[in-house]
Amino acid sequence: MKSKIFAVHTFLILLIASAPMKTLLAESNNLVLVVHKNSQITEITKQQAVHLFFGRVKSLPHTGIIEVIDFQPYRSEFYRDLVDRDISEINAYWARLRFSGKTRPPRQVFSFQELKNQLELYNNAISYSPADLVADELRVVTLIE
Amino acid sequence: MKTFFFIIATLCMTASFASSANERPWHINGFGSLGITHHTQDGVGYRRNLEQARYARSGHLNTNTDSNLGLQIGYEAHPKLYFMAQSVLRLDDKGRWAPMIPFAFTKYQFDNSHELRLGRLSLDIYTDGDSRHLGYAYTSIRPSPDIYGQIMYDHFDGFDYVIPLSINDFIFKTKVYAGRVRGNYFLQDRSFSAGKGYVYGATFDWSSADVSMRFAIGQIHRRNANDYENTANDLRALGRLPFPGLSAATGYADELERNSKISFLGIGGKWDKGPYSHTFIATKFNYSTFPSNDGWAAMLESSYRVGQFKPYVGFSYINITPKDKPLSFPSGPGLPDLSQAETTYTLATRYLATDKKTLTLGLRYDVTPSAALKFQFDRIEADKSALLKDFDTPLLRNKNLNLYSLSLDYIF
Predict the structure, then answer these.
(1) Which residues of B, range 291-330, sit inside 8 Å of A by Cβ?
(2) DSSP-based helix, strand, coil % in chain B, nearest 5
(3) How far does the signal peptide extend, from start to end residue (chain A) (predicted)?
(4) Is residue B148 part of a domain?
(5) Residues of chain A with pLDDT under 70
(6) Domain containing B92: what range?
(7) Which tens digits make up the pLDDT trace of B74-108?
(8) I want to staple B220 with a disulfide (CB 3.0 to 4.6 A). Which of A43, B182, B262, B289 is the partner?
(9) CATH hierarchy code of domain A25-144
(10) Rounded to a whole number, what is the distance in Å from the CA of A133 to chain B's nearest CA?
């Protein structure tokens, strides 16, 4: 039994080690919070942004439930900007919540087209993106310090 | 394991029924820890919690203490309805590698953001997460054994209800929970079960962007636990003997069989600011009826991130003081020798006695965004302890230990 358990551990560790480390390789960008142009969200405080992206709240005053979306290629950089924490610390935080069944991490998208589609699909969704990618269908949310 | 597969099958059926209108995602995730511990204190055994029935012995590389493997499956049938089940393979109270189910529940989110969970849940009483199995979530190799290791019953079948409240930039959450308590622990070569017991309590959380605090209160009641049935029977037999002074034995037997109650209070805080992270937890608990104990414990941990490295330092202390008086019968010519009964009873009252402190130094290295390698040194000084074992005497007294640990924790 014990040798089987160690074989499973070895397999899983190798699987994880072979995963691409895109999140650690993102180049520096000017990231902004974005929503769909029809979203009710217009401005947000930094504390509210932290609470939303850390799953502590699911809505803001005068909004319905907000869908939070992580734009995977810029995830590491975004959390570094927001709370000055390493992506592995963010993963550990979410692991604590996910594996105690409290809440699940934000939905993840891997391309800008996917991000636009998701923001359109969920009217009250929020995410982040490099400022120079923000197109007509999207709107930048003012971050109040 | 059959139970887990049953739950998975139930989830699949429920999911397929619920997903007819709109396909919703499944989530299959897991976690694991591959740990090695080593110490050189002859005649002493180490374990990380009361559940483990095997000890890390002197001079050996032990892989049982910190290793485990968890698998979780979840299904979002609707944005407001979520199912989840989790199984963890770990060293149990029989000394086997066996699965347990810390979570298997249905969660419903109401329009006002209140949340109701029904099913198997874990006790959520300390600040730093409610799963003591999830090594990756903790900075150190193991959540402080002086706090988390003393938990006898860590899950329950029932419900919890969360009421969140946002005021300005602060989040307040109140959670109430109740249910039938589950869990086992191993003490003095015996396994104890929660039996017919129930738990109820509440937690109150407050969070700002960098700081979170929790206050927890709860009680566990166990009815007719009969943990010491043989000793109680012996005492009743003694009480029936026609000798003066022995009638008190019946009273002791009643005390052994009476319903027991564990009360606990906890307060904790966590401060994360940039590379700095600080955590503290303090708890006070009380075991009423046999064996009665009063206890308290506290821990502090600080870490500082430097790139992918995170050195940390921690200190914890626990004290559990027995309240039961030793059993004492009259002795003399013509009276039976009752020293064995006295010894057995007195030992039982002292099994949980603890006076132990731990200094922890360690280094966490995040190899990838989902795997961490940790090295840890613990200096453990125990005047008394239920977690450590002295293989030469029934009760451990005045033993110190240098524990070296290496662990690879990961999630997938």
Answers:
(1) 305, 307-308
(2) 15, 55, 35
(3) 1-19
(4) yes
(5) 1-29
(6) 2-223+259-411
(7) 998 888 899 999 999 999 999 999 999 999 999 99
(8) B262
(9) 3.40.190.10
(10) 26
| ipTM (interface predicted TM) | 0.82
Q: How confident is the model at residue B395 (pLDDT cuts 50, 70, 90)?
A: confident
Say whether A51 and B105 touch across the interface (CB within 8 A).
no
- B245 in any annotated domain: no
Tell me if B363 is assigned to some domain: yes
Q: Is the predicted pLDDT of residue B9 greater than 90, yes or no?
A: no
Interface contact flag, B136 A98, Cβ < 8 Å: no
Q: Are B270 and B279 in contact (CB under 8 A)?
A: yes
B residues 215..244 contacting A (CB < 8 A) = none
Q: What is the CATH number of the domain that holds B359?
A: 2.40.160.10
Q: Which of residues 122-141 of B touch A (CB under 8 A)?
A: 122, 124, 128-131, 134, 136-139
Measured distance CA(B39)–CA(B34) in Å, rounded: 17
pLDDT tens digits for range B30-68? 999 999 999 999 999 999 999 999 999 999 999 999 999
Q: Which of residues 149-188 of B touch A (CB under 8 A)?
A: 164, 166, 169, 171
Tell me which residues of chain A have a C-beta less than 8 Å from any C-beta of chain B.
1-2, 5-6, 8-9, 12-13, 15-17, 19, 21, 23-24, 45-48, 50-51, 56-59, 61, 65, 76, 83-89, 91-93, 95-96, 98-101, 104
Binary contact (B274, A45; C-beta < 8 A): no
Under 8 Å CB-to-CB from B227, ≥6 apart: which residues?
B192, B256
Considering only the beta carbons, identify the residue of B72, B207, B368 that sits closest to A19.
B368
pLDDT over 50 at B151, yes or no = yes
The answer, yes or no, to whether residue B170 has pLDDT greater than 70, is: yes
Q: Which residues of B touch A50 (CB under 8 A)?
A: 209
Q: Which residues of B touch A44 (CB under 8 A)?
A: none
Confidence at residue B196, expressed as pLDDT on a 0 to 100 scale: 80
pLDDT per position as a tens digit, B319-342: 999 987 777 777 777 777 777 777
Q: How far is CA B216 from CA B105, B124, B162, B175, B279, in A?
A: 22, 8, 14, 9, 16
- Residues 6 or more apart in contact with residue A57 via CB below 8 angstroms: A48, A51, B113, B164, B166, B171
Rg (CA), chain A: 17
Is B103 part of the contact surface with chain A (CB cutoff 8 Å)?
Answer: yes
Residue B279 lies in a domain: yes
If pLDDT is split at 50, 70 and 90, which confidence band does B314 have? very high
pLDDT of residue A14: 66
The distance of Cα A70 from the centroid of its chain, to the nearest Å, equals 2
Location of structure tokens 């197109």: A135
